Recover the amino acids of this structure.
């Protein structure tokens, strides 16, 4: 394991206490990094002339159960012996085990050069650091009191933390996990819009060493200013040199670069309250010659469905249509192309997509990890990790949020509902089954 | 609709019970002592009689637990609450949330403007309030009860959702109230209080 050279200076008993404390909020907490709320602006989230901020959702016209609502995230993690490991189903030869637990609300994952796993979260406002000692992994509350710090990136010893419209850089963080330094604040340089809905961040550093940043649409369905919202942007790491890489996106919270073509592929979660059937979520690709292109929101969804509430003539003209559909209300979050050698060859350069699972759908959908096999501009979607949704009972046991490829080629899947990660590994079955 | 079956509750208790050794002296107050402190502002029966102080009676248990948790963790910063929440144990959160969820919500006694309440019903439909807060406005899970809530609490709270990011809440609330006029907000508050 990549962790084996890293040692946390804690006796075993202390690390157990920290493990428990991390799941209950009693850990010794570092002071929050100047996490004061943004001052109220005189004209909050002001739209330019012609753009109404008002959400155009018509719940009663959707034909759906009007009491559907987002699922809460438990603030307390599931004990390790109650995790739904036995529910998880995988293709032959793959197995799942618990890799870490005790980090309620943990979602995004990035790893430091010295093997620390950092995890971002949403409502719970924490960034966790998971370290390993003597084969035992211990989550620690590294930062807390932030507003939805979902966006994490790591480069040259520094951890970048993107909360809602706040950007911090923690230098030499792995040498100071017990006492994180005051961060360098990059909020002003990144100059992100001050609206909060769909603006918890997903970020990743691209092959060009630029920071790619999501800027969501600040509504379920509304007119947006394409110069401000509904984008993927890229910046120099210090926040300078902003460019818009894609427009007309409702909300993407997962993207990655194809290992061969180097094109950016991203999930886009479709609108709610337009029926149980969709419009389906999208898997998109930014063609090399179409950077800055338009992906349709709010006028055109999925494979060319005009919006029922915001109407425009030729709604889908000039729209880059998806490479594949990810299913109705599936909520694809994490997306990673597999480049390891542990999994069989047919998984090489395949995208693993964590589908967090639906809320705005009477019969639940998703709660799994799917794979996307890409072929030029198109892709096909297949199930991979299933079993966390009981379709008959219409109940879920966990919500896969993000995926992370370890150095040994195994794949981590974070489960936000249970505050745990699962390690997926593969072992070649023996050719002659001899007993 | 049925959601995941409140898996956090038994865990919260089990974990907290297993961890009593970690409690410090300041965490040793009994639940009844805690409730007595809360009653000073939020009312003996959880129905506030004090201007701008919210009623807690009849709030969904998860909402109370989550709000106290987020204030304790420093995500939701409410200065007036800071000293009361900082030492709460998970067991306290669980006990307080059960206590307030079980109390009946009563009207605050404020004067409700019937015409405004009627207009508020239309605004609530237009903005989809009932889809999360339920047609009775009794709330569910992480969504608070707003029925019978104090008008003088609801108005500034709705304005703050509209005017400034509010850490710890579902950001969908920010979208739901975006662009509402002060008059619409007054109407919504009267409507909710009247339910």
């Amino acid at each position: 394991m990549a962790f084996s050279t890293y040692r946390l200076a804690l006796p075993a008993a202390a690390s157990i206490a920290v493990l428990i404390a991390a799941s209950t909020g009693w850990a010794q907490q570092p002071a929050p990094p100047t996490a004061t709320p943004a001052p109220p602006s005189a004209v909050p989230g002001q739209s330019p002339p012609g753009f109404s901020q008002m959400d155009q959702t018509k719940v009663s016209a959707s034909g759906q159960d009007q009491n559907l609502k987002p699922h809460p995230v438990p603030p307390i993690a599931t004990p390790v012996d109650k995790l739904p490991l036995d529910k998880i189903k995988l293709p032959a030869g793959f197995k799942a085990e618990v890799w870490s637990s005790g980090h309620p609300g943990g979602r995004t994952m990035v790893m430091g050069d010295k093997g620390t796993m950092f995890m971002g979260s949403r409502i719970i406002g924490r960034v966790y650091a998971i370290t390993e000692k003597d084969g035992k992994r211990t989550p620690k509350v590294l930062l807390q009191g932030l507003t939805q710090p979902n966006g994490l990136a790591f480069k040259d010893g520094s951890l970048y933390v993107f909360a809602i419209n706040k950007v911090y850089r923690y230098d030499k963080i792995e040498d100071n996990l017990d006492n994180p330094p005051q961060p360098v604040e990059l909020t002003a340089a990144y100059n992100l819009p001050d609206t909060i809905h769909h603006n918890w961040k997903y970020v990743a550093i691209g092959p060009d060493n630029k920071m790619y940043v999501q800027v969501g649409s600040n509504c379920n369905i509304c007119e947006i200013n394409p110069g401000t919202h509904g984008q993927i942007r890229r910046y120099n790491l210090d926040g300078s040199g902003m460019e818009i890489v894609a427009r007309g996106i409702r909300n993407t919270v997962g993207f990655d670069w194809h290992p061969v073509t180097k094109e950016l592929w991203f999930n886009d979660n479709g609108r709610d309250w337009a029926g149980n059937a969709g419009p389906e979520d999208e898997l998109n690709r930014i063609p090399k010659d179409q950077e800055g292109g338009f992906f349709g929101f709010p006028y055109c969804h999925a494979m060319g469905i005009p919006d029922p509430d915001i109407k425009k003539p030729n709604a889908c003209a000039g729209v880059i249509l998806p490479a594949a559909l990810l299913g109705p209300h599936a909520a694809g979050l994490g997306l990673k192309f597999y480049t390891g050698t542990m999994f069989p060859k047919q998984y090489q350069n395949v995208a693993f997509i964590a589908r967090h699972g639906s809320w705005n759908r009477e019969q639940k959908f998703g709660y799994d990890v799917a794979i996307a096999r890409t072929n030029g501009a198109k892709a096909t979607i297949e199930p991979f990790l299933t079993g966390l949704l009981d379709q008959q009972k219409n109940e879920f046991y966990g919500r896969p949020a993000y995926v992370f490829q370890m150095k040994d080629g195994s794949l981590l899947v974070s489960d936000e509902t249970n505050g745990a990660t699962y390690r997926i590994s593969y072992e070649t079955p023996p050719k002659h089954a001899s007993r | 609709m049925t959601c995941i079956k409140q898996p956090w509750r038994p865990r919260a208790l089990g974990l907290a019970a297993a961890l009593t050794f970690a409690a410090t002296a300041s965490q040793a107050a009994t639940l009844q002592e805690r409730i007595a402190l809360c009653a000073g502002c939020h009312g003996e029966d959880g129905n506030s009689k004090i201007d701008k102080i919210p009623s807690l009676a009849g709030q969904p248990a998860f909402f109370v637990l989550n709000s106290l948790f987020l204030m304790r963790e420093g995500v939701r910063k409410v200065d007036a609450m800071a000293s009361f929440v900082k030492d709460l144990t998970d067991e306290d959160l669980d006990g307080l949330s059960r206590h307030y969820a079980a109390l009946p919500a009563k009207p605050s006694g404020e004067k409700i403007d019937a015409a405004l309440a009627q207009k508020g019903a239309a605004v609530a439909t237009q903005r989809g309030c009932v889809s999360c807060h339920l047609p009775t406005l009794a709330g569910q899970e992480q969504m608070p009860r707003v029925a019978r809530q104090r008008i003088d609490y609801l108005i500034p709270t709705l304005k703050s959702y509209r005017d400034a990011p509010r850490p710890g809440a579902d950001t969908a609330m920010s979208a739901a109230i975006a662009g509402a006029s002060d008059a619409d907000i007054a109407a919504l508050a009267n409507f909710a209080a009247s339910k």
Remarks:
- The first helix of chain B runs from residue 8 to 18.
- The two ends of chain B are 22 Å apart (CA to CA).
- The CA atoms of residues 127 and 176 of chain B lie 6 Å apart.
